[in-house]
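Changelog note: in this version the structure field was regenerated for every chain. One regenerated record is shown below for reference.
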Amino acid sequence: MKKITLGVSVLSLLAASVVYAAPMTNMDQGTGKIDASFSLGPSFKVEEYGWTRDMDGKTRGRLGLTYGLGDKIGIDYKYVGHAGDALDSSLQSNQLNLMYQFNPNIAAFAGYVHTRLKVPGGNIEDSQNGYQVGVLGRMDIAQRTSAWASIGVGNKITAYEVGVGYDLTHNFDLDLFYTNTKYRGFDYGIDAKTHGVNLGVTYHF
Protein backbone atom coordinates (compact mmCIF):
# COMPACT_ATOMS: atom_id res chain seq x y z
CA MET A 1 0.00 0.00 0.00
CA LYS A 2 2.89 2.37 0.76
CA LYS A 3 4.32 1.73 -2.73
CA ILE A 4 0.98 2.55 -4.36
CA THR A 5 0.66 5.72 -2.29
CA LEU A 6 4.17 6.78 -3.34
CA GLY A 7 3.38 6.21 -7.01
CA VAL A 8 0.16 8.22 -6.81
CA SER A 9 1.97 11.07 -5.02
CA VAL A 10 4.65 11.23 -7.73
CA LEU A 11 2.02 11.24 -10.46
CA SER A 12 0.21 14.08 -8.73
CA LEU A 13 3.40 16.14 -8.79
CA LEU A 14 3.97 15.37 -12.46
CA ALA A 15 0.43 16.27 -13.40
CA ALA A 16 0.95 19.80 -12.13
CA SER A 17 3.35 20.63 -14.99
CA VAL A 18 3.76 20.12 -18.76
CA VAL A 19 5.50 17.96 -21.65
CA TYR A 20 7.75 14.61 -22.39
CA ALA A 21 11.01 12.46 -22.77
CA ALA A 22 10.55 8.68 -22.89
CA PRO A 23 6.71 8.65 -22.86
CA MET A 24 4.76 10.10 -25.81
CA THR A 25 3.07 13.51 -25.71
CA ASN A 26 0.26 12.60 -28.11
CA MET A 27 -1.29 9.65 -29.90
CA ASP A 28 -1.54 11.16 -33.40
CA GLN A 29 -1.95 8.48 -36.03
CA GLY A 30 1.39 7.13 -37.20
CA THR A 31 3.46 8.51 -34.33
CA GLY A 32 5.25 6.11 -32.02
CA LYS A 33 8.30 5.10 -30.04
CA ILE A 34 10.54 2.09 -29.55
CA ASP A 35 12.48 1.64 -26.33
CA ALA A 36 15.04 -0.83 -25.01
CA SER A 37 16.76 -1.02 -21.63
CA PHE A 38 18.81 -3.23 -19.35
CA SER A 39 19.00 -3.44 -15.59
CA LEU A 40 21.77 -2.22 -13.32
CA GLY A 41 21.81 -4.69 -10.41
CA PRO A 42 18.29 -6.16 -10.52
CA SER A 43 16.47 -7.87 -7.65
CA PHE A 44 14.39 -11.00 -8.35
CA LYS A 45 12.65 -12.83 -5.49
CA VAL A 46 10.03 -15.56 -5.16
CA GLU A 47 7.54 -15.68 -2.28
CA GLU A 48 5.79 -18.90 -1.27
CA TYR A 49 3.58 -19.48 1.78
CA GLY A 50 5.08 -16.61 3.73
CA TRP A 51 8.76 -17.22 3.01
CA THR A 52 10.91 -15.37 0.48
CA ARG A 53 13.75 -16.77 -1.59
CA ASP A 54 16.23 -14.52 -3.37
CA MET A 55 16.80 -15.74 -6.93
CA ASP A 56 20.00 -13.65 -7.12
CA GLY A 57 18.90 -11.55 -10.09
CA LYS A 58 21.65 -11.26 -12.70
CA THR A 59 20.02 -9.80 -15.81
CA ARG A 60 16.94 -7.87 -16.74
CA GLY A 61 15.91 -6.49 -20.10
CA ARG A 62 12.94 -4.61 -21.45
CA LEU A 63 11.64 -3.87 -24.94
CA GLY A 64 8.67 -1.69 -25.74
CA LEU A 65 6.67 -0.27 -28.64
CA THR A 66 4.00 2.43 -28.51
CA TYR A 67 1.98 3.43 -31.59
CA GLY A 68 -0.58 6.19 -31.99
CA LEU A 69 -3.92 5.35 -33.61
CA GLY A 70 -5.36 8.87 -33.53
CA ASP A 71 -8.15 10.53 -31.49
CA LYS A 72 -5.90 10.37 -28.39
CA ILE A 73 -5.81 6.56 -28.54
CA GLY A 74 -2.75 4.33 -28.90
CA ILE A 75 -1.51 0.82 -28.26
CA ASP A 76 1.51 -0.15 -26.17
CA TYR A 77 3.42 -3.45 -26.05
CA LYS A 78 6.04 -4.25 -23.42
CA TYR A 79 8.28 -7.27 -22.87
CA VAL A 80 10.14 -7.66 -19.58
CA GLY A 81 12.59 -10.48 -18.91
CA HIS A 82 14.41 -11.48 -15.71
CA ALA A 83 16.98 -14.14 -14.97
CA GLY A 84 18.49 -15.30 -11.70
CA ASP A 85 21.56 -17.34 -10.78
CA ALA A 86 19.66 -19.32 -8.14
CA LEU A 87 18.06 -22.52 -9.44
CA ASP A 88 18.24 -21.34 -13.09
CA SER A 89 15.25 -19.10 -12.41
CA SER A 90 13.59 -16.82 -14.96
CA LEU A 91 10.51 -14.69 -15.44
CA GLN A 92 9.08 -13.21 -18.64
CA SER A 93 6.15 -10.83 -18.91
CA ASN A 94 4.33 -9.71 -22.07
CA GLN A 95 1.94 -6.79 -21.73
CA LEU A 96 -0.42 -5.28 -24.31
CA ASN A 97 -2.28 -2.10 -23.36
CA LEU A 98 -4.72 0.33 -24.92
CA MET A 99 -3.75 3.91 -24.07
CA TYR A 100 -5.71 7.16 -23.87
CA GLN A 101 -3.86 10.52 -23.85
CA PHE A 102 -5.78 13.08 -21.80
CA ASN A 103 -3.18 15.80 -22.48
CA PRO A 104 0.61 15.98 -23.12
CA ASN A 105 1.21 15.20 -19.42
CA ILE A 106 -1.29 12.49 -18.49
CA ALA A 107 -2.27 9.19 -20.11
CA ALA A 108 -4.24 6.19 -18.87
CA PHE A 109 -3.83 2.56 -19.93
CA ALA A 110 -5.64 -0.76 -19.60
CA GLY A 111 -4.79 -4.16 -20.98
CA TYR A 112 -3.62 -7.75 -20.86
CA VAL A 113 -0.66 -9.25 -18.99
CA HIS A 114 0.82 -12.71 -19.61
CA THR A 115 3.62 -13.81 -17.27
CA ARG A 116 5.68 -17.00 -17.11
CA LEU A 117 7.74 -18.05 -14.09
CA LYS A 118 10.32 -20.86 -14.24
CA VAL A 119 12.48 -22.16 -11.38
CA PRO A 120 13.66 -25.56 -12.71
CA GLY A 121 15.80 -26.23 -9.65
CA GLY A 122 12.76 -25.67 -7.44
CA ASN A 123 10.33 -27.65 -9.62
CA ILE A 124 8.32 -24.51 -10.40
CA GLU A 125 6.96 -23.72 -13.86
CA ASP A 126 3.74 -21.80 -14.36
CA SER A 127 2.20 -19.11 -16.52
CA GLN A 128 -0.76 -16.84 -15.88
CA ASN A 129 -3.00 -14.33 -17.63
CA GLY A 130 -4.40 -11.18 -16.10
CA TYR A 131 -5.36 -7.56 -16.65
CA GLN A 132 -4.14 -4.18 -15.45
CA VAL A 133 -5.22 -0.54 -15.43
CA GLY A 134 -3.00 2.42 -14.73
CA VAL A 135 -1.95 6.01 -15.29
CA LEU A 136 1.22 7.65 -16.63
CA GLY A 137 2.37 11.22 -15.93
CA ARG A 138 5.32 13.32 -17.17
CA MET A 139 6.82 16.80 -16.95
CA ASP A 140 9.81 18.88 -18.06
CA ILE A 141 12.30 19.45 -15.25
CA ALA A 142 15.17 21.15 -17.13
CA GLN A 143 16.27 21.98 -20.65
CA ARG A 144 16.12 18.75 -22.72
CA THR A 145 15.31 16.77 -19.54
CA SER A 146 11.97 15.41 -18.38
CA ALA A 147 10.65 13.09 -15.68
CA TRP A 148 7.86 10.55 -15.64
CA ALA A 149 6.09 8.12 -13.35
CA SER A 150 3.53 5.39 -13.88
CA ILE A 151 1.52 3.06 -11.71
CA GLY A 152 -0.49 0.01 -12.76
CA VAL A 153 -2.63 -2.40 -10.76
CA GLY A 154 -4.44 -5.57 -11.77
CA ASN A 155 -5.62 -8.96 -10.62
CA LYS A 156 -2.15 -10.49 -11.16
CA ILE A 157 0.22 -7.50 -11.12
CA THR A 158 1.10 -4.32 -9.24
CA ALA A 159 3.82 -2.12 -10.72
CA TYR A 160 5.22 1.37 -10.54
CA GLU A 161 8.00 3.20 -12.36
CA VAL A 162 9.79 6.54 -11.87
CA GLY A 163 12.34 7.88 -14.34
CA VAL A 164 14.10 10.73 -16.09
CA GLY A 165 14.95 11.14 -19.75
CA TYR A 166 17.45 13.32 -21.59
CA ASP A 167 16.91 14.34 -25.24
CA LEU A 168 20.07 13.31 -27.07
CA THR A 169 18.57 14.38 -30.41
CA HIS A 170 15.12 15.18 -31.76
CA ASN A 171 14.40 11.45 -32.06
CA PHE A 172 16.52 9.78 -29.37
CA ASP A 173 16.25 9.93 -25.55
CA LEU A 174 18.56 8.45 -22.94
CA ASP A 175 16.52 7.07 -20.02
CA LEU A 176 17.31 6.25 -16.39
CA PHE A 177 14.46 4.81 -14.34
CA TYR A 178 13.49 2.65 -11.37
CA THR A 179 10.85 -0.09 -11.59
CA ASN A 180 9.17 -2.18 -8.89
CA THR A 181 6.78 -4.98 -9.84
CA LYS A 182 4.94 -7.78 -8.06
CA TYR A 183 3.46 -10.67 -10.06
CA ARG A 184 0.83 -12.59 -8.07
CA GLY A 185 -1.09 -15.82 -8.18
CA PHE A 186 1.18 -18.51 -9.61
CA ASP A 187 0.59 -22.16 -8.67
CA TYR A 188 1.16 -23.22 -5.06
CA GLY A 189 0.56 -19.70 -3.74
CA ILE A 190 3.72 -18.32 -5.33
CA ASP A 191 4.34 -14.61 -6.04
CA ALA A 192 7.37 -13.03 -7.72
CA LYS A 193 8.85 -9.61 -6.96
CA THR A 194 11.34 -7.65 -9.06
CA HIS A 195 12.86 -4.20 -8.80
CA GLY A 196 15.91 -2.31 -10.02
CA VAL A 197 17.42 0.71 -11.72
CA ASN A 198 17.45 0.59 -15.52
CA LEU A 199 19.34 2.36 -18.30
CA GLY A 200 17.88 2.57 -21.76
CA VAL A 201 17.25 4.47 -24.97
CA THR A 202 14.03 5.55 -26.67
CA TYR A 203 13.57 6.24 -30.40
CA HIS A 204 10.62 8.47 -31.33
CA PHE A 205 9.15 8.37 -34.86
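Spot check on this record: The first helix runs from residue 2 to 15. The domain at 2-204 is CATH 2.40.160.20 (Porin).
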